[in-house]
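How a chain folds remains the central question behind the approach discussed here. In the encoding step, the backbone of a single protein was reduced to a row of integers, each denoting a local shape. We regard such an encoding as a compact summary of how the chain folds. The sequence in question and its structure tokens are set out directly beneath this paragraph:

___
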Amino acid sequence: MPRGFLNTWKVADFGGVKLPALSLGAEAALAVAHAVYKERIYTLNDFLTVDKWLDRGILEELGVAPAMRYIASLHLAVARGVAELPSRIPLGLWAFALMERVVSFRLTAATLPNLARVGTRFGRLFLSKLV
């Protein structure tokens, strides 16, 4: 069972002020999950974050390894200069990744009924991902 992003925090020093922050590996994993599940688009910012900070061990621990499988080939293509960013994740891959997430991660499946309570906002957001 993934332990969750909030359990990966550390104390960071920002100009002499101690602040809670995610570990760099968790930041990269969050960038992958956000790009795949929420935005359905992989940007230069995501690429640089993943390229610099990715910790493959934390992907499995946080439950976002399936999302990374969909990003890995795109990431390599960009690194080789074969693909350009931003790049839209194909609808079929996105839908499959999302369904895999729902099936394999109980917390995601448990929150699906809450989407119905959000009302038309969710419908508009979901439809925007289909275009």
